[in-house]
Amino acid sequence: GMPAVPPPPLAPRRQSRQIMVGSVPVGGGAPVSVQSMTTTLTADVNATLQQIAELTASGCQIVRVAVPSQDDVEALPAIAKKSQIPVIADIHFQPKYVFAAIDAGCAAVRVNPGNIRQFDDKVKEIAAAASAAGIPIRIGVNAGSLDKRLLAKYGKATAEALVESALWECSLFEEHGFRDIKISVKHNDPVVMVRAYRQLAEQCDYPLHLGVTEAGPAFQGTIKSAVAFGALLAEGIGDTIRVSLSAPPVEEIKVGNAILESLGLRERGLEIVSCPSCGRAQVDVYTLAEQVTAALDGLPVPLRVAVMGCVVNGPGEAREADLGWPPATARGRSSSRARSSRPSRSRRSWKPWSRRRSGLPTRWAPN
Ligand code: SF4
C-alpha cells in the first residue's frame, strides 16, 4: 500500500516563547517533546544513568530527577554529564539545591511555588544564577501542594488557583528580568487540568509543560492523560508533555509518544489498524493483532499494518496500510479454508482490564 500521509494538524500551535532545555527546544513552534522522571534514588548514579539510558532508548527527550537530599545533589554533576538527554533537577524545598543543580550542569531546574515561600527572597539570586548559566526554570504548580494562601482564597485547588499560583511565581522572576520559564499546572482531574491550561495559555506566552498529576495506574493514567492532553493539544496548547503513571517510566514514554502520534504531532511509528472483530471474523483478530504488534514493535520505521477479521473493511484498510491482513488477493473470498480457521470463541488471548466491576455474573447460563 501507499505510505499514509498524515492529515494536517487539528489547530495551529499556540504561539509561545521558546526556551532551550539543553539541546531540546521547547515552545516557539518546536515539536512537542516527551519527558519522564527517574524512579531510582538519584544518589545512585549508576542506577539512575541506567534508567536514563532505557528512557532515552524508548524515545524520552528530557528527563527529570528528584533532588531531595544532599546525596542526590552530589550525584548531579555525574548524571548531568553522562546522560544522553537533558537532565532537569526537581527541587522542592531547598534553595541551596537549586544553586547546586545549576552548578552541576543540569539543563533546567523545576521549582514548586507552593513550597517556595522561603524562596521569596532567593528568587533574585536564583534568576541571576540561571541567567548566568543560560538555563530555564520550570514553575511547576501541583494541586497537591498548592500555596496555602491560594488554598485559603479559593477553598480548593481550582483551575483559577493553579493559574494564579503559577503567574504569581512568574511575576517574582519577571521582576528580575527573568523570562526563561516554562510552566505546568497539574491536577489529577483532567477537567480541572484542561481548564487551568486553557486559562494559562490565554494569560501568558510561556511554553507549557502538560501533565495530569497522580494520574493513577497504567490503564487509568493512560486514559486520563490521553484525554486531557488530547483536548489541549487539539487546540494547539502544550509544548512538552509528561505522562504520570504508577508504572515504570518507560511506559510513560510509550504512552506520551503514542498520544503525539495519534494527533499527528509526531511521525507515527508502528500503527496497528485492527478491527474489534465480530461474528464475521475469519481469523482470531486479537491474537493476530498482538502477534503482529509483538513482532514489529520498536522497528525504527513508520509502518501501518492492517489486521482485519474479514473482507468487509479488510481490503480497504489494507490498501491504506503498508502491510495488511487479509491480503488484497483475499478480497471477496470466503473459502472453506478461511472459514475453518475461524477463531475459537474462548478468546484466550484477551485479558480484560477489569473483571466483574458491576458485580453481575460474567457467565451466561442457558436455561
Ligand atoms: Fe467484523 Fe470484518 Fe469489521 Fe472485523 S472487519 S469488525 S470481522 S466486519
From TrEMBL:
Single GO BP term: isopentenyl diphosphate biosynthetic process, methylerythritol 4-phosphate pathway
Pfam families: GcpE, GcpE_C
Reaction equation(s) it catalyzes: (2E)-4-hydroxy-3-methylbut-2-enyl diphosphate + oxidized [flavodoxin] + H2O + 2 H(+) = 2-C-methyl-D-erythritol 2,4-cyclic diphosphate + reduced [flavodoxin]
Family matches, as SUPFAM superfamilies: Dihydropteroate synthetase-like (SSF51717), Nitrite and sulphite reductase 4Fe-4S domain-like (SSF56014)
Keyword Heme: no
Chain segments carrying region Disordered: 1-14, 321-367
InterPro entries: Dihydropteroate_synth-like_sf (IPR011005), IspG_bac (IPR016425), IspG_bac-typ (IPR004588), IspG_C (IPR058579), IspG_TIM (IPR058578), NO2/SO3_Rdtase_4Fe4S_sf (IPR045854)
Transmembrane segments: none
Gene3D superfamilies named in the record: Dihydropteroate synthase-like, Sulfite Reductase Hemoprotein, domain 1
Residues annotated as binding [4Fe-4S] cluster: C275, C278, C310, E317
EC number: 1.17.7.3
Record-annotated IspG TIM-barrel domain positions: 16-256
Superkingdom assignment: Bacteria
Cofactor binding summary note: Binds 1 [4Fe-4S] cluster.
Keywords, comma-separated and alphabetical: 4Fe-4S, Iron, Iron-sulfur, Isoprene biosynthesis, Metal-binding, Oxidoreductase
Pathway field: Isoprenoid biosynthesis; isopentenyl diphosphate biosynthesis via DXP pathway; isopentenyl diphosphate from 1-deoxy-D-xylulose 5-phosphate: step 5/6
UniProt GO MF annotations: 4 iron, 4 sulfur cluster binding; 4-hydroxy-3-methylbut-2-en-1-yl diphosphate synthase activity (ferredoxin); 4-hydroxy-3-methylbut-2-enyl-diphosphate synthase activity (flavodoxin); iron ion binding
Residue intervals of the IspG C-terminal domain: 271-328
Biased composition range(s): Basic residues: 334-358
Cofactor(s) recorded in Swiss-Prot or TrEMBL: [4Fe-4S] cluster
Annotated function: Converts 2C-methyl-D-erythritol 2,4-cyclodiphosphate (ME-2,4cPP) into 1-hydroxy-2-methyl-2-(E)-butenyl 4-diphosphate.
UniProt xrefs under HAMAP family: IspG
Family membership noted in the UniProt record: Belongs to the IspG family.
Name of the protein described by the UniProt record: 4-hydroxy-3-methylbut-2-en-1-yl diphosphate synthase (flavodoxin)
Taxonomic source organism: Polymorphospora rubra
Gene from which the chain derives: ispG1
